[in-house]
Design goal:
Elements: H1 2-10, E1 13-16, H2 27-34, H3 38-46, H4 54-64, E2 69-72, H5 79-98, E3 107-110, H6 114-127, E4 136-138, H7 141-148, E5 159-162, H8 164-172, E6 183-186, H9 189-192, H10 198-207, E7 214-219, H11 224-233, E8 238-242
Helix pairs in contact: 4-5, 5-6, 8-10
The chain binds adenosine-5'-diphosphate (ADP) and magnesium ion.
Amino acid sequence: KEDAAKLRKSYGAKVSGEDIPLPIGSFQDLVTRFQLDHKLLENLIQQEFTEPTPIQCEAIPAAMYNRDIIGCAPTGSGKTLAFLIPMVQSLIMENKKLKGKRQNVRCLIISPTKELAYQIFSVLSHLVSGLTELKIGYLNKSVAGKLRNKVISSSKFDIIVSTPLRLIDLVDHEALNLSCVQQLVLDEADKMFDSNFVEQTDRILTICTNPKLRRSVFSATITSNVEEIAQSVMTYPERIIIGHKEA
Ligand code: ADP
Ligand code: MG
């Protein structure tokens, strides 16, 4: 507990909410506390991600405890892995229980632009390298076309990364079933809730009908307006703000 307070002070974190889990001090902590898959750890080390960044220290345990998250940390501070690591780990754990029974899409990551969505997909594909039981998809034109023409089924994917419009289009054409989605991440949340995107974002929030849906939003800046909307669709979110004091 005291260590946690010290750690939080050192990276200028303000964390609020109910029952806030202790941060991790290293990726090794994830092995001890959450049985982090050894292949996943190996993939991190291989890419020279040896120590978690502050947003990762806070957001990963929160996600492992299945919390809704409002995460705010500067650009370049590792928000992508902060939401991808617990997402992948929880799927690996669930797969062990399901023993090969295929599910529909379980995780959804939405980003406002194609470039950013593809960037997330690329980080994700490195992270799941060698974890062959996990199927990931980026909804580019070609994949979207195949889904629309029923050449492939959405149950082929465990995790989908997309921009809002492409996703909504597929749902409208009954080419994508999102009723089983357990985790929804809105990246660049300041944009996702601005006037250009808010309608699409609202739509996505209503499409994901699983009552157990865990929602999280990440951004470099979170205005009070965004915060208000996010809070209104979340359940006891943990709010993590990392200051700009990061080294
Ligand atoms: P953000 O989304 O917060 O702007 P990114 O997730 O794009 O930041 O990460 C920024 C950079 O930091 C990327 O090049 C990524 O590879 C790197 N990075 C992320 N996590 C770590 C880590 N734990 N250790 C070292 N580098 C990291
Ligand atoms: Mg980012």
